[in-house]
Amino acid sequence: MITIGVPAEGPDEPRIGLSPETAKKLVKLGAKMLIRSGAGLRSHFSDQEYKDAGAEIVGTDADAVKDADIVLTVRRPPLDLVKSMKQGAMLIAMLDPYSDADGLQALAKTGASLFAMELMPRISRAQSMDVLSSQANLAGYKAVVDAAALFERALPMMMTAAGTVPAARVFVMGVGVAGLQAIATARRLGAIVTATDVRPAVKEQVASLGAKFIAVEDEEFKQAETAAGYAKEMSDEYKKKQAALVAEHVKTQDIVITTALIPGRPAPKLLSKAMIESMKPGSIVVDLAVERGGNAELARAGEVVEHNGVRIMGKLNLPGAIPVNASSLYARNLVAFIEPMVDKKTGALAVNWDDELVKGTLIAKDGAIVNAMIAERAGAAPKGGKT
User: Fold this and answer.
1) 47, 74, 60, 7: which is closest to 334 by C-alpha?
2) Has 328 been annotated as catalytic?
3) Which of 1, 2, 4 is nearest to 22 (CA)?
4) Are 364 and 116 in contact (CB under 8 A)?
5) Single pTM value for the model
6) pLDDT tens-digit map of 323-350
7) Active-site annotation holds for 230
8) Residues 96, 100, 122, 355: which is the catalytic one?
């Protein structure tokens, strides 16, 4: 029998890595489930619900992890908590592997096997494990809902006896999972939606959702996507042409939502101060990339900034603002990842360390960083040469 431990998250993280639904699934796999008392309350999961699912409630975070073979968290846990885990235990979380290299090195030296769910390979077999997609989907939805609440005008066109209320115009910059959900949500609310991205493949997706695609469609644009489906860094010349097109378009928009991120790099600047100043008073900007420096020049992490009557929202952790759904989806991602690691007959842990999903997400093992890309950022040679 394997033991899986779930401590409470920090004060700024309402999500949890285990739902009563997934606790029940893991117990059926033969796992002993330990969860810190009250850990699920901010996601509206009570201790009693976990008990009914077969989990054991413990009094402290240390009690939840000290005997665990696998520890599940949302964010990178404190170093002292990881030190209290038994040697070689697996920590599976969103470890933010591109930041705080020293902190990551310290976690690696504890001897825990560290799995960063953000590094899950983008292949069909891993779709049910893709935490970035499950959380970004909710972020895109919440961005539109929050913008609509702050906008102080109606989004849909309304024809009344007193006259017509025009539809709001929403512009989505960056059409990944978050951007697509933002488009779909804004369309459901009746807005006129346009969107832009440097990847040509998303043009049809934008059109399929009833929005109009805005981009400089030259030869560089046609080559602007990596094999993994991420956006490439564009040339300065292309950026200037695209910025000119966007600058003209932004002037007429009521709500602009920016979602552009490049893994391992600061967020690209898409919305300049001049562009924001060209927008009408009362307009809204929502910057979903603010944790990585932001797409909008005036965005500040955790704040709503007003400039010339335009409000720029830099709220952090939008998925955490919908904790019930975010926790449920994230917990399902984790279960999908863990299930293949458990022997169905014996219930014992049976990790295939050569599996591409395991290799792709494993960043540290046996006291050293084993992912070459992360090791380079941390200033250390990767143990075993894994990538």
Assistant:
1) 74
2) no
3) 4
4) no
5) 0.91
6) 999 999 999 999 999 999 999 889 899 9
7) yes
8) 122
